[in-house]
Design goal:
The complex is a heterotrimer of chains A (488), B (169) and C (513). Chain A is built from 17 helices and 23 strands. Chain A is α+β, with helices and mostly antiparallel strands and 488 residues long. In chain A, the strands form six sheets. Chain A has an eight-stranded antiparallel sheet with strand order 14-13-10-11-12-15-22-20, with helices on both faces. In chain A, helix 1 links the parallel strand 1 and strand 2. With 169 residues, chain B is mainly beta. In chain B, strand 4 and strand 5 form a beta hairpin. Chain C has 513 residues and is of the alpha/beta class. Chain C is 40% helix and 17% strand. In chain C, helix 4 packs parallel to helix 5 and helix 13 runs parallel beside helix 15. Classes of the chains: A alpha+beta (488), B mainly beta (169), C alpha/beta (513). Chains in contact: A-B, A-C, B-C. At the A-B interface, helix 8, strand 17, strand 18, strand 23 and helix 13 of A face strand 1, strand 2, strand 3, strand 4 and strand 5 of B.
């Protein structure tokens, strides 16, 4: 049993809430760091202790390594859970913590370093005989020529990147130079390192990933795969487990490749190996994420395991309490990410205040969020609002359940992608399992036309509510209000 | 004397007559219908329009109205006819505005700089993507509205241009 | 009803029918039309009670509709305001004698009712060929500015939006306001415009340098704000009005408002086609007042007059109407009722349909003149607001007793069928014709019956025209001709405006006369 009694969460929002929930269940005290602008938030309300860290812009508070170490010392936290994003895949952060005698709930700095460098990770996998997408690297010289040799379209990525940041498609040669510069600039800004590399861009591949758990004693198990093909702007919005319509042999190959990578890398903790699948049944290693993933709940729902709990136990030095044959995948789970964004205008992030909030509940439904009525959604943080996950006996039931859960979700005050997600869930291509990363661009997901009567009802409600809520200071007095629009 | 409501990119003229409870509502040139809105609890309402009734969730802030009805979400804006007219008459495209909320990463120009159409003015970051804001026309930079590292909202003015011969303010 | 149709046709013409070139000229100057300005200024879904829409409709050969000026009551940011706006689509908004009369009357309304004024200034200046009817007398040009000064001392706020050049005397209109907004480019304020300056001193100066928005808002201080567009100016004016206190109404008994039980459209069926035919004023009351309820006072006494209590948009009012000629008893009843209303602080509304006081030996001996004088004395000296509707006929001293124009009704509106003159058309026609015929007879002319008839008809035609509601409203003997079915709304707004001024307490007992 773990000897960790207090964990600091170096994260925010829904994942912070989710981690705290597990800590509560395990009887471990929680310390949350937070920027003052979130001191009233849901996560701060759940944590046993809160340490405020200043920062401008606010995200910098969650990247403040010194501040976090100080907070650990001040509160006596023995371990840090980094969640995802921020410092989750920062090897030097893990190393600093180790030097201070604080446990990092995640893999070793070496493993992070190996997998965090995209090119090193590729080389490593290739050495294990796992296919990778052809690429050209900057340091090999003749970068432009090598890129052209890959044949367009290409994808430019930051060597130190991840999470869809600093990724750019290049469809033709004329835009190549310009795009390289932009990608380098972004890479430098986000990852402190400007080097980029180019890959051949696969046409509408599927994105399938394998969830792993590994302890420090060399045991590695996989928890099945997830399909995360439905993406916009290189970011996943719908994920499911198991992957629909996957050839069993191919599936087995993916699972065993993932396990092999983790074993050979001496990996510990939870991790995910991502693959791209082309239309011809080939697969390519894409990258390995050395942290808990946003979409981990779908795996939790089909395996019945708590991945955060497993991460903590592994960090405490516990061996895995099960072997591969103990892992049973039951049913089908689908997750939809609710974003503050406007799908009608190119998924631009939206801001606002949550004026009305109602989240779905019920058997087979899980909502991970840190929302509260009255909270402001600003551009200071990632625009993800909540994850709605549904689990059913089979894929159809799970999709039905998720569709109805989304329909019952009410978030007023900020534009969200809720309806858009509903349309994806209900789309016949989705129902038929025809998922690939080009799903959103190649399917018609436009909002249905409003009926005349519906339009009239909406306009009437808006007009009436605007009158009802008029500031009494500027309300139209009687008899003018009763007379209304009239001229003699 | 009229109210303009924007829904899904279209604008509709809506007028209300009569006291609450006996309100007649007229949309565009359609025949008026009796209409009322009763509060259930919190943001739940029941709309009655003519013979029909419909439960709705409604939230409003300033001129923005958010409605959840028939399983869908709608965003409506009550437009101030004056402001609307002022906007229509005003803008001559001399201010580069933010296409989305974000933070200024780098500013390429200073007041007094002469720019041509398409000259990069500023790099902004939003949604993990860097976007270059370019000059909407040729002119002289009069004002840079947002400093490096500072955030702004959608539609916020970023850089204002004047005529080529004007002096910066 | 045909006359109501005619009213709306005339109103439409006065409001909107302009030569295309005048509209194009304004458009090319990026100016809005006056109706568009007002629409933008007022709150959405609120009424606008336009005053004297048909002013000057029978003057100046009809080429100056509305006297080139729009005036009316509306709501801005929840506050009642009087809008006074030049109509620059007519002769550049030049001031004709009736324009000045309209402006003075509007400002009188503001003074009497303490209602803030928004001036939309865009006038070319006085129409010089008629300057002698515009400038010198007590109620002419100077009265506009004098009224503005008085208004200021009464604590009534004024906002000016200068949307055109405002020269000479006109320059004082915005300058005497508490808040003055000027639009860059089109707005200008100067005592003497560039041509006059050139003629007087030889100085060459542009309109902008002389009195443009920036000069006045940042150099001379003559204006307070400079804006780039009319729309911005209107938005700013609205913002300024939003800082004014909300009007407190005089303390009049009030209950929940109720629509009348009877449809106001039924009024058309009551109005007779012949002015001599009598109708029951109670039927009018039933189409105007809350719930069609009317409590009649002294119903069995002086039955040619009707008076009693009713509610209008919840406010208690005293209503008085004529059901025939005024006799001593009916005049005394009304006088007693007016005393009650004044003591109990109840505003009164007169519904005129009066041929006058009864004449004849019996009535003179019964003191009819004395009883009429009592009514004038009480009526003229009331503290509570009075409103008057001309429903049909208004002749002779009855006009005075029933609060005609001279008796300072806060507002006076006419129905389109109404007629007004010192005596009825037939008596007057006969009297005038007789005078004419006698004069001709003195000159030795003998006339055939045909000739006599044509003289009589000519006289009556002219008399009829001058006693018509159209002539009356053209000369601004009223505040406008209204569609009878709108009477309730018009009175409601008029009463609401009238209640802005507090009328204190009364300590007079009521005489049973």
């Amino acid at each position: 049993m773990t000897d960790i009694r207090k964990v600091l969460i170096a994260n925010r929002g829904e994942i912070a809430c989710r981690i705290i929930r597990t800590l509560m269940r395990m009887g471990i005290r929680s310390v949350l760091i937070c920027h003052p602008c979130e001191a009233e938030g849901a996560a701060a309300g759940m944590a046993d202790e809160v340490v405020e860290i200043e920062g401008d812009p606010p995200v910098s508070a969650y990247l403040d390594v010194d501040g976090i170490i100080r907070a650990c010392k001040d509160t006596g936290a023995e371990a840090v859970h980094p969640g995802f994003g921020f410092l989750a895949e920062n090897a030097s952060f893990a190393e600093r913590l180790g030097g201070e005698g604080i446990r990092f709930i995640g893999p070793t700095p070496d493993a992070i370093r190996l997998m965090g460098n995209k090119l090193a990770a590729r080389d490593f996998c290739r050495s294990l005989g796992i296919p990778v997408v052809p690429c050209a690297r900057e340091e090999d010289g003749d970068f432009m020529e090598r890129l052209k040799a890959l044949v367009f379209p290409l994808l430019l990525k930051a060597v130190a990147g991840g999470g869809g940041k600093a990724m750019h498609e290049v469809m033709e040669e004329t835009r190549l130079k310009e795009t390289i510069n932009l990608a380098k600039e972004e890479a430098l800004r986000y990852f402190g390192e400007g080097s980029v590399y180019g890959e051949k861009l696969l046409r509408d591949p599927r994105h399938v990933e394998v969830q792993l758990l590994a302890d420090r004693y060399g045991s590695v198990v996989h928890l099945g795969e997830r399909d995360c093909s439905i993406q916009r702007r290189f970011q996943k919005i719908i994920e499911e487990s198991p992957a629909p319509g996957l050839d069993p042999e191919l599936r087995q190959e993916l699972l065993s490749s993932a396990v092999k990578i983790a074993k050979e890398a001496g990996y510990e903790s939870a991790g995910t190996v991502e693959f791209l699948l082309d239309g011809q049944g080939r697969f390519y290693f894409l990258e390995m994420n050395t942290r808990i993933q946003v979409e981990h709940p779908v795996t939790e729902m089909v395996t019945g395991l708590d991945l955060v709990e497993q991460q903590i136990r592994i960090a405490a030095g516990d061996p895995l309490p099960f072997t591969q044959k103990d892992i049973i995948i039951k049913g089908h789970a689908v997750e939809a990410r609710l974003y503050a964004e406007d799908p009608e205008s190119d998924f631009q992030p939206s801001t606002g205040r949550i004026l009305s909030l109602r989240l779905p509940e019920g058997i087979g439904i899980r909502v991970d969020h840190a929302l509260e009525k009255g909270m402001n959604v600003t551009h200071a943080f990632d625009p993800m609002l909540a994850k709605v996950i549904a689990c059913g006996e089979d894929r159809h039931k799970a999709l039905d359940l998720l569709g109805s859960a989304l329909e019952r979700t009410v978030i007023l005050g900020v534009t969200t992608n809720r309806e858009y997600l509903q349309r994806i869930i209900g789309h016949h291509a989705m129902r038929g399992g025809k998922v690939h990363t080009g799903f959103i661009t190649s399917n018609d997901l436009k909002a249905p036309q409003l009926e005349d009567r519906q339009r009239k009802m909406l306009l009437a409600a808006a007009a009436l509510v605007s009158r009802q809520f008029t500031d009494p200071e500027f309300a139209v007095p009687e008899p003018y209000a009763a007379i209304g629009d009239w001229i003699n | 004397m009229r109210r303009c409501i924007e829904l899904l990119g279209h604008r509709y003229e809506v007028s209300l007559n009569g006291p609450s409870g006996k309100t007649m509502i007229k949309i565009e040139d359609r025949p008026p219908e009796s209409s009322s809105l009763t509060t259930e609890e919190g943001s739940s309402f029941i709309l009655a329009l003519g013979e029909d009734t419909l439960p709705m969730e409604i939230a409003r802030t300033g001129e923005e109205v958010f409605i959840h009805a028939f399983g869908r979400h709608f965003y409506l804006r009550i437009l101030d006819p004056v402001e609307q007219a002022a906007q229509a008459a005003g803008s001559k495209g001399d201010t580069a505005r933010a296409p989305m909320p974000g933070v200024v990463v780098e500013t390429a120009v200073r007041p007094g700089d002469i720019v041509t159409r398409g000259t990069p003015l500023m790099t902004i970051e939003s949604m993990k993507i860097l976007t270059v804001i370019k000059a909407p026309r040729e002119g002289i930079v009069i004002k840079v509205h947002v400093e490096n590292g500072k955030p702004f909202n959608k539609n916020a003015p970023l850089v204002t241009l004047g005529e080529g011969r004007e002096r910066p303010l | 009803m045909a006359l109501a149709e005619e009213l709306h046709t005339r109103e439409h013409a006065a409001r909107f029918e302009r030569p295309a070139r005048d509209i194009e000229r304004l458009r090319s100057q990026k100016k809005l039309l006056v109706r568009e300005r007002i629409e933008l200024l007022l709150d959405p879904e609120t009424p606008f009670l336009e005053l004297s829409t048909l002013a000057a409709c029978m003057a100046y050969d009809g080429i100056v509709p509305g006297a080139a000026f729009v005036s009316g009551i509306g709501i801005v940011m929840g506050r009642e305001v009087l809008v006074m706006a030049s109509d620059s689509s007519i002769k550049g908004g030049a001031w004709y004698p009736l324009t000045v009369k309209k402006m003075v009357r509007s400002l009188d309304i503001a003074i009497e009712n303490r209602i803030p004024v928004i001036h939309l200034v865009d006038a070319a200046g006085a129409f010089l060929p008629l300057q002698s009817d515009i400038f010198p007398d007590r109620y002419m040009g100077g009265r506009i500015f004098r009224n503005q000064c008085v208004l200021s001392s009464l604590g009534v706020r004024q906002v000016a939006l200068v949307l055109g050049h405002s020269t000479a005397g006109g320059a004082y209109v915005p300058t005497l306001c508490d808040y003055s907004i000027m639009v860059r480019g089109t707005g200008g304020v100067f005592l003497g415009g560039p041509p006059l300056v050139k003629a007087a001193t030889g100085e060459d100066v542009s309109a902008d340098e002389l009195g443009g928005a920036d000069v006045h808002s940042s150099v001379s201080g003559t204006a307070d704000y400079a804006v780039d567009t009319e729309q911005e100016g209107i938005a700013l004016a609205r913002e300024i009005v939003g800082t004014f206190p909300r009007q407190k109404k005089a303390d009049v008994e009030k209950r929940e408002s109720q629509e009348p039980f009877y449809d106001p459209e039924e009024l058309y069926g009551i109005i007779p086609d012949d002015i001599k035919k009598q109708f029951d004023m109670r039927e009018v009351f039933a189409k105007v007042f809350d719930g069609s309820l009317f409590h009649e006072f002294k119903p069995d006494y002086g039955t040619t007059a009707v008076c009693g209590f009713a509610y209008l948009y919840g406010w208690k009012v005293g209503a008085l109407g004529n059901n025939g000629v005024l006799f001593s008893d009916s005049a005394k009843k009304l006088t007693q009722f007016l005393q009650i209303c004044n003591r109990d602080r109840i505003p009164v509304i007169f519904f005129q349909n009066i041929t006058g006081f009864m004449v004849g030996k019996e009535y003179e001996q019964g003191g009819i003149t004395k009883d009429g004088a009592k009514m004038l004395m009480v009526q003229a000296n009331m503290d509570v607001p009075k409103l008057t509707i001309m429903t049909n006929g208004s002749f002779g001293a009855g006009n005075y007793a029933m609060c005609g124009r001279a008796y300072d009704a806060r507002f006076l509106f006419s129905w389109p069928n109404s007629q007004i003159s010192v005596m009825g058309m037939e008596q007057a026609g006969r009297t005038l014709a007789e005078i004419r015929l006698k004069a001709l007879a003195r000159k030795g002319k003998s006339l055939s019956e045909e000739e006599k008839k044509s003289i009589y008809e000519g006289i009556t035609r002219d008399y009829l025209e001058k006693s018509s509601a159209w002539y009356s409203t053209s000369e601004m003997w009223d505040d406008g001709v209204i569609d009878p079915r709108d009477t309730r709304k018009v009175l409601g707004i008029a009463l609401s405006v009238a209640l802005n001024r507090d009328f204190g307490q009364s300590y007079h007992g009521v005489l049973r006369i």
